[in-house]
């Protein structure tokens, strides 16, 4: 990609007349939009009748944009197959868990595993890339749009056949599957793979192994489709490829981005959920470590559809979002969408320009983002994000395990975000890393809410600790096997042995009156919890009240040069927040975590560096203003003045840049 920061929007020229398109380009130039994303829902425009493909309209549009200095990310249009593909072909359509077959319309109505869908998707993609692949205006490709946003696991006959094939490849023999899943329970025993059902309607709950494995099968198949699309694109173009995803969708993002060139995401978090916005930046920075990520979609003011709407952003928040994104490693910051749609199910959604061509309520904020982008660009391009000392693991596979076994409504995304908020509020610079990421360069790694830990993860964790790292594990971690069954040798399997602890019980502690004490404070304990045998040598946190009084909920075990810390239960409530932060602070100090400072709630520091200096981008996200403690003398880049160490005030939604010499 070019050496610039991108400020862009999704654009649908196929919906507008030539004079409106001319007006749009003029307004884009005035607004500072330097990249647009087009094509993702335009299959019927490109191929209105089967095998009659005409891309001349889009070639003209890409040319016209490029002539005006606006670059393009072109998308494959596969989320919305045309009527010729769907009409009278229910066998090609997505089937939900209740057995309902989707009809034409909306999007994601086709089964992406259907053989004919894959064939037609490859054909239209090949035509697009043959036509536009060498165009200088094309700076990147986006595959499809928001995989598994509205749908999850398909239950059609095609998927059933592929499911049985997937099981054969995984288990080799039906006896291996029966043993792994424990199918003698409730007479679920199978005699051949073709008898294994899809987890559709049932009187009660499906076997955990069946449910979890089907979700993993589905995630692997959608990544396979992405790989096939990327392979077609690479035949004719060298421009980088991405997909616009989210941790909210039914995909394994780590697997999805494995064979793509850069990572991008969509987010519509409102101001009260700014931590949910930031956790995406800290995670997407690490899906393709060392490469910039993109925010491919966010709202200029509010998200809305025919049935829902969010609160609009206060003035100034959009600039704070963009500042945080660029500082934390984004190359592109883009809106959905440029011109408000006059038809369809998302007519009310906020945009840059209204359907009648006038500025919207968010327009002023878009202009602010553009001014900020120009100010940031030389600094961002000459620096890179500082390596964090602390990392927290996020896992889409763990999301699947918790979807099967939610323990009264828990979900991985919410749990990890809540944990992440504590670290954020402590002013610790952090990475959120996928499950398969290296631990190299970190001093503290946290692994909460991951039911199954692979042998590979355990090996990396052991190596990390032996070399001086502090690994904080739990809660809700390690208690299930790869097949989503219970360990039979010990409660946490190999993790328990590695951590030098003995688990006595596992049970739900919520509303059980359990109190834990550690680091000079006490708090109620909750979630499905693990209770450890008390040991003078290893116990750090003791249960003082409840069913397991006198036992441990927090342990510490030295291994090599480092420590494994086991958190068996979640401190909850206001007291729990204090206890959890004290634990993180204690081990951060012990590990000499240096990438941190004191911040007030709602204000963050995003450090970047080059060979001779470190630059702190200090951004207020909540609109209340705040302060950051400056550790030593620095230089205020915008105001061109030296500043002394101490508290530096940050105004509402303000961003300050302070440079420190190395």
From TrEMBL:
**Which reactions fall under this protein's catalytic activity?**
Hydrolysis of terminal non-reducing beta-D-galactose residues in beta-D-galactosides
Where's the Beta-galactosidase trimerisation domain? Answer: 388-586
Q: What class of enzyme is it?
A: hydrolase
Q: Which SUPFAM superfamilies match?
A: (Trans)glycosidases (SSF51445), Class I glutamine amidotransferase-like (SSF52317)
E.C. no:
3.2.1.23
Keyword flag Zinc: yes
Q: Which residues form the Glycoside hydrolase family 42 N-terminal domain?
A: 11-372
Q: Which UniProt keywords apply?
A: Glycosidase, Hydrolase, Metal-binding, Zinc
Q: Which family does it belong to?
A: Belongs to the glycosyl hydrolase 42 family.
Q: What is this protein called?
A: Beta-galactosidase
Q: Which organism is it from?
A: Metabacillus elymi
């Amino acid at each position: 990609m070019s050496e610039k920061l991108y400020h862009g929007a999704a654009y649908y020229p196929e919906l507008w007349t030539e004079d409106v398109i001319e007006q749009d380009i003029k307004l884009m130039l005035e607004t500072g939009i330097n990249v647009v994303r087009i094509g993702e829902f335009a299959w019927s425009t490109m191929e209105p009748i089967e095998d009659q493909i005409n891309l001349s309209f889009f070639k003209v549009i890409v040319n016209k944009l490029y002539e005006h200095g606006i670059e393009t990310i072109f998308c494959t249009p596969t989320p919305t197959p045309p009527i010729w593909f769907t009409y009278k072909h229910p066998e090609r359509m997505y089937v939900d868990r209740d057995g309902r077959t989707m009809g034409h319309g909306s999007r994601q109505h086709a089964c992406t595993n259907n053989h004919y869908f894959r064939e037609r998707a490859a054909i239209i993609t090949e035509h697009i890339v043959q036509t536009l692949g060498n165009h200088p205006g094309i700076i990147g490709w986006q595959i499809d749009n928001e995989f598994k946003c509205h749908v999850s696991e398909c239950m059609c006959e095609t998927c059933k056949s592929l499911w049985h094939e997937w099981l054969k490849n995984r288990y080799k023999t039906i006896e291996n599957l029966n043993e792994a899943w424990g199918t003698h329970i409730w007479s679920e025993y199978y005699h051949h793979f073709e008898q294994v059902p899809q987890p559709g309607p049932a009187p009660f709950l499906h076997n955990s192994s069946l449910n979890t494995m089907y979700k993993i099968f589905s995630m692997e198949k959608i990544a396979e489709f992405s790989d096939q699309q990327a392979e077609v694109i690479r035949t004719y173009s060298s421009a980088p490829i991405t997909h616009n995803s989210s941790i909210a969708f039914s995909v394994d993002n780590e697997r999805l981005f494995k064979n793509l060139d850069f990572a991008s995401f969509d987010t519509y978090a409102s101001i009260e959920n700014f931590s949910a916005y930031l956790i995406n930046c800290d995670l997407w920075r690490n899906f393709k470590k060392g490469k910039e990520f993109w925010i491919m979609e966010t709202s200029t003011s509010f998200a809305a559809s025919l049935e829902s709407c969010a609160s609009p952003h206060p003035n100034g928040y959009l600039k704070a979002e963009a500042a945080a994104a660029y500082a934390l490693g984004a190359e592109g910051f883009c809106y959905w969408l440029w011109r408000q749609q006059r038809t369809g199910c998302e007519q009310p959604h906020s945009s840059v320009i209204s359907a009648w061509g006038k500025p919207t309520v968010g327009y002023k904020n878009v202009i602010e983002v553009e001014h900020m982008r120009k100010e940031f660009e030389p600094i961002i391009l000459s620096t890179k994000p500082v390596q964090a000392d602390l990392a927290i693991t996020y896992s889409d596979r763990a999301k699947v395990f918790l979807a099967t076994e939610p323990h009264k409504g828990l979900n991985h995304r919410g749990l990890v975000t809540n944990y992440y908020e504590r670290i954020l509020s402590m002013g610790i610079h952090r990475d959120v890393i996928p499950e398969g990421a290296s631990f190299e360069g970190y001093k503290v790694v946290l692994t909460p809410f991951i039911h199954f830990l692979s042998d590979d993860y355990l090996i990396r964790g052991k190596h990390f600790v032996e070399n001086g790292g502090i690994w904080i594990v739990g809660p809700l971690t390690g208690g299930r096997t790869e097949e989503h069954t219970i360990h039979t040798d010990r409660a946490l399997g190999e993790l328990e042995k590695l951590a030098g602890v003995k688990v006595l019980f596992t049970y739900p502690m919520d509303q059980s009156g359990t109190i834990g004490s550690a680091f000079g404070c006490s708090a109620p304990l909750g979630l499905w919890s693990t209770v450890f045998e008390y040991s003078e040598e290893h116990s750090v946190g003791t249960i003082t009240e409840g069913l397991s009084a006198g036992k441990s909920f927090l342990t510490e075990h030295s291994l090599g040069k480092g420590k494994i810390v086991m958190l068996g239960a979640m401190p909850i409530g206001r007291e729990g927040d204090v206890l959890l932060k004290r634990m993180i602070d204690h081990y951060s100090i012990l590990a000499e975590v240096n990438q941190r400072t004191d911040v007030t709630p709602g204000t963050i520091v995003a450090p970047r560096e080059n060979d001779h200096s470190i630059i702190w981008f200090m951004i207020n996200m909540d609109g209340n203003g705040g302060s950051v403690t400056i550790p030593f003398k620095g230089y205020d880049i915008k105001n061109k003045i030296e500043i002394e160490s101490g508290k530096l005030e940050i105004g509402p939604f303000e961003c300050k840049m302070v440079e420190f010499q190395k």
